[in-house]
Every structure is written in structure tokens, then in C-alpha cells.
Amino acid sequence: MVIKVAVTGALGRMGSRIIKTIQQHPDLKLVAAIEVPNHEKRGEDVGKLLGIGEIGVILETADRLEDILKKSKPDVLVDFTAPEATVNAVKVAASQGINLVIGTTGFTEEQRKEIEDTIKKHRVAAVISQNYAVGVNIFFKVLEFLARKLRDYDIEIVEMHHRYKRDAPSGTALRAAEIIRDNLDRDVSIIYGRAGIIGERKKDEICIHAIRGGDVVGEHKVIFAGDGERLEVTHRASSRQAFVNGVILAVKFVSGKRGGIYDTFDVLGLKD
Ligand SMILES: NC(=O)C1=CN([C@@H]2O[C@H](COP(=O)(O)OP(=O)(O)OC[C@H]3O[C@@H](n4cnc5c(N)ncnc54)[C@H](OP(=O)(O)O)[C@@H]3O)[C@@H](O)[C@H]2O)C=CC1
Ligand SMILES: O=C(O)C1=N[C@H](C(=O)O)C[C@H](O)C1
Q1: Do 11 and 111 fall into the same domain?
Q2: Which of 9, 56, 130, 187: CA 20 to 30 A from 20?
Q3: Which pLDDT does position 272 carry in this prediction?
Q4: What SS3 state is found at 132?
Q5: Residue nearest ligand 2's atom 13 by CA
Q6: Cβ contacts of residue 202 below 8 Å, gap of 6+?
Q7: What is the CATH number of the domain that holds 108?
Q8: Rounded CA separation 219/183 (Å)
Q9: What local confidence, expressed as pLDDT, does residue 63 receive?
Q10: Cα of 162 to ligand 2 centre, how many Å?
Q11: 8 shares a domain with 142
């Protein structure tokens, strides 16, 4: 069976790669590609815009999302855009019974809740993950283990991304901090950077440090610092294809599912 896929953020760093990869999977068919309202390339063939030759799908814009989805009838909508754009895409797609793969990061608590409530209300299925790379999900599992074993160590997270990234800290760093917090048997708060006369480090905090620069695809390091030793775990993404490969698995996983909110642990069979 062929899975029909729509992609929002079609010309973005992730969206464009997702579309190119869909073209390499005979069991996936791109049926709609959507960009920001009033995009100057609206109406042009998306394959041509991406330098892979005509594919027979024209670039549409988000102001017409409802009609586009009604016409193209995708099984799954893949969204890597920006927080408000994702909230809107989820509302429109879910109301038409379309399942979702969501990769956008940087949501407020309210936006996250709105997305989850919408998915539940319309009983669609969605995969939501801050990081679709297989290696990062294994890194998360390693963090669960380390947090249980090194519970008295001082824990710090450092992430680095390209200069264009809009949100900080990264969704992955936030998820890593939550995983560690949930696996420690003591209360900790998550804080963001330090400056000034901060005094001695507090035991009950995990600090996230966000670095931005150049074309770095994505790096995450977690440091467990003890007395006389330090354990560091690092994941480095050198190509966005690492995320895209996970997205393709998520599309195949969520297609045809009846309802529910899943993550990449579900997709990759990593749930305990
Ligand atoms: N979960 C994961 O594994 C990963 C998540 N991400 C996240 O994905 C998101 C996108 O990242 P990236 O591809 O690098 O960003 P880009 O800015 O390259 O791409 C986003 C695209 O979405 C477009 N867009 C914005 N609003 C809308 C809208 N309303 N409808 C349709 N398209 C819209 C943007 O257009 P314009 O530029 O004109 O605004 C842009 O083309 C970020 O939140 C990032 O953190 C990234 C990599 C991996
Ligand atoms: O914006 C990016 O590029 C990335 N965003 C995700 C995040 O915020 O964690 C995942 C990846 O690190 C790349």
C-alpha cells in the first residue's frame, strides 16, 4: 500500500530533505507541499524548486491549507516549521482525520497542550519528537541509565547548533534534561546558563548551555561531574539525513494508526 504524505515547511532545511527522501521510497507518495502564505514560488513544481526535476506536485501555501488537504487527501502530514505554524497545521489536519509526524521544537507549554488536546479531540494518531535521529534516541536511553547510576553527580548539558536556529535551548537538550530529572531519585530544577556572582553550584539543578554558530547540524553533550572523575556522553549529527531517516520510519509507523500520541521510542521499539 502506498502512503500519501503532505509536507509543510516544504522548502526548509528539513522539509526539502524529507521531500527528496520520500521520492526514493516507492511505498510513499508526496501529494502536497506547503510553504508560508504568499510564498513567491507558489504554483511552481516542487521537484524543480529542489533541483530534482519535475515531480508533478506544485508548491502550495498555508493560507489554503484546509482546501489543499481536502483535495490531496494525505494519510500523514509531516510538519517541520515553526511553533505557531505547527499549531495551525495540527488543527487543520486533525479536523480532517489526517495523522501527523511533528518535528518542530520551541513550543510554549500552552502550544504543546493545544496540540495534544487537538490530537485527542479528533482521535488522530501523531508522532511527536524533538529528535528523530536513531542515535539521539539511544543517547536518551543511555541518559536514563546514567541518571539512575550517577545520581549524586553534578549534571550539565551543552548543545550547539547552526546560526539560523530560532529556539534555545534545543528541544533535544530540554528532553535530555527531562529524562535525567525523571530518572534521578532527587528533585532538580532545569536552569538556562549562568552569569554574575552565582556562588557555589547548587546540587539541585541541571543547567543547559546553548551555543550557536556556523553550520553545525546539531551537537548535544551531557556531563556527569563527580569528585575526581567526569563522564561525558556526546551525540553529533553531521547530516540532517539522520533526522530524516527517523521521520520516514515515523511516517510508516503512524500511517493507518487509529489514534494516540507516540514518540520516537515507540517508533524505534525503545519503550521499556
Ligand atoms: N525533531 C527533529 O528531529 C528536528 C527538528 N527540527 C526542528 O524543525 C523546525 C524546522 O527546522 P528547519 O527545517 O531547520 O527550519 P527552516 O527555517 O529551514 O524550515 C522551516 C520552513 O517552514 C516554513 N514555514 C514557516 N511557517 C510556515 C507555515 N505557516 N506553513 C508552511 N511553512 C511554513 C519556513 O518558511 P520561512 O523560512 O519563509 O519562514 C521554512 O521554509 C525547527 O523547529 C527545528 O528545531 C529540525 C531538525 C530536526
Ligand atoms: O533546529 C535544528 O536544526 C535542530 N533542532 C532540533 C532540536 O531543537 O533539538 C533537533 C536537532 O538538534 C536539530
Answers
A1: yes
A2: 130
A3: 83
A4: coil
A5: 218
A6: none
A7: 3.40.50.720
A8: 22
A9: 97
A10: 9
A11: no
Do 195 and 217 fall into the same domain?
yes
Crossing angle for the helix pair 83-95 and 109-121, nearest 10 degrees? 10
* C-alpha 17 – ligand 2 centre gap (Å): 14
215, with CB counted inside 10 A (0-12, 13-18, 19+), is exposed
Does 11 lie in the same domain as 87? yes
CATH code at position 193: 3.30.360.10
* 20 among known catalytic residues: no
For the chain, residues with pLDDT lower than 50 are: none
Interface ipTM above 0.85: yes
Supply the pTM of this predicted model: 0.98
CA of 14 to the centre of ligand 2 (A): 10
Note down the domain range covering 146: 134-237
Same domain, yes or no: 214 and 149: yes
Q: What is the pLDDT of residue 77?
A: 99
Ligand-binding annotation for 118, yes or no, is no
Average pLDDT, the chain: 98
Q: Are residues 79 and 192 in the same domain?
A: no
Q: Which three cell numbers stand for residue 150?
A: 550517577
